[in-house]
Write a structure and sequence with these properties.
Elements: H1 13-28, E1 34-41, E2 44-51, H2 52-65, E3 79-80, H3 82-89, H4 93-101, E4 108-110, E5 113-117, H5 118-145
Antiparallel strand pairs: 1-2, 3-5, 4-5
């Protein structure tokens, strides 16, 4: 069995292909509020209901696995340290502290330590990524208008 070495992953080609096929089938039915599944267990067939949010997590997981990527699921309510937040944003910890002190990301203190909800760091990251993307698009359009060969 061939191993996928692209992402230093131990995911096999068979697993990647199964995830790809599964994600295609699941994508076709991603429009309900509740999903019914029949699973074969050691006690026989069991019917379960899966809410939309859980289904979407499963679907996104299959899509990532189909690309040979590993996934981790972490609650967005998880509190993280300033160093973990800085690592997510790819900035230094002192720079992150300045962002926090400007109230750009909500935080709270536990004793003398700052704690941040992961969802707030992700929200900030999405906001600055969107802003960067918009600026890059504007620069690309400007380069095309000036016929710079881009």
């Amino acid at each position: 069995m061939r191993k996928n070495t692209e992402n230093n992953s131990s995911t096999t080609y068979v697993e990647i292909e199964a995830a790809r096929q599964s994600s295609e089938v699941l994508s076709d039915c991603a429009h309900k509020e509740m999903y019914n599944f029949t699973l074969e267990t050691k006690h026989g067939k069991q019917n379960i209901q899966v809410p939309k949010d859980a289904f979407n997590i499963f679907l996104q997981s299959m899509k990532q696995l189909s690309k040979g990527k590993k996934i981790n699921i972490i609650s967005s309510e998880k509190e993280i340290t300033t160093q973990e937040a800085a690592d997510i944003l790819n900035v230094s910890r002192p720079y992150l502290i300045s962002i926090l002190e400007k109230n750009n990301i909500p935080f709270h203190k536990t004793g003398n330590r700052r704690k941040i909800f992961l969802k707030d760091v992700i929200s900030y990251k999405n906001k600055i990524d969107a802003k960067r993307s918009k600026i890059l698009d504007e620069l690309a359009n400007e380069a095309q208008d000036l016929d710079m060969g881009y």
